[in-house]
Amino acid sequence: MDAAAWQERVVVVRSPMHAAQQAAGVEKRLCQAETTRAALTPPRGRGKRHITDEATLLEAIALVLQAHRGEGLLRVAWEKQVEQTTPYVGRGRGALSREKRMRQQTRSHITHSARQADPIAARRHRCGWKACVTNAGPQRRSLRDAAVGYRNAYRVERLVHRLQSRVQIAPLLIKRNEHMAGLTSRLTLGVRV
Predict the structure, then answer these.
(1) What one-character-per-residue DSSP string does 103-127 give?
(2) Exposed, middle or buried: residue 161 (CB in 10 Å: 0-12, 13-18, 19+)?
């Protein structure tokens, strides 16, 4: 039993408009990451909760960068600040013979945040590229024909979006994979009809 041979051609295209949109998205995510990162260590004041452990601060910074897809694009410097006070034990005024107790408060504070120019430039350089895959025959096609063929290809996601624009479909809660497969086939059938 011979397996069917599947040959496909890949056309790699760079769209300047798509590149500009993706670069703007990178810039927006970096600004959001910097704003969220600055909120991790607020200035001293009443009602402000500070991060005391360095490992907790590093974990919070990593979560912020991961949420905004900024890993490797921002460099953050921090320091451990220690504040010592020696209040008197108990209530009332102090005296020479009164016992004192040393109290120490620590906080990890972000001192500096800088953007990494080379990784950001590399990320922007990758923006705008698309790989168009086709199983068209061996005849030579122009770039325009290949891009139009790729855009007009059958895609389930586009069909569902077209259906949603014409018919109000409420979100559904589906728990089983069989139900998802059946719903997808019925939606695509409804769109094709």
Answers:
(1) EEEEEEEEEEEEE-HHHHHHHHHTT
(2) exposed
Per-residue tokens: 29: 């995510």
Q: What pLDDT, on a 0 to 100 scale, did the predictor assign at position 177?
A: 81
What confidence score (pLDDT) does residue 190 get? 64
Yes or no: say if 191 and 157 are a contact pair by the CB < 8 Å rule. no
| Mean pLDDT, range 28-54, rounded to an integer | 86
Asked whether the beta carbons of 124 and 26 are under 8 A apart, the reply is yes
CA distance 123 to 129: 11
Using alpha carbons, list the distances in angstroms from residue 12 to 4, 18, 127, 143, 178: 26, 14, 13, 10, 36
Spatial separation of the C-alpha atoms in residues 128 and 71, rounded to whole Å: 20
| 108/51 Cα distance (integer angstroms) | 6
- Contact predicate 30/68, CB 8 Å: yes
Q: Which residues contact 67 (CB under 8 A, 6 or more apart)?
A: 33, 36
pLDDT in tens, 85-135: 888 888 877 787 888 888 888 888 888 889 999 999 999 999 988 776 766
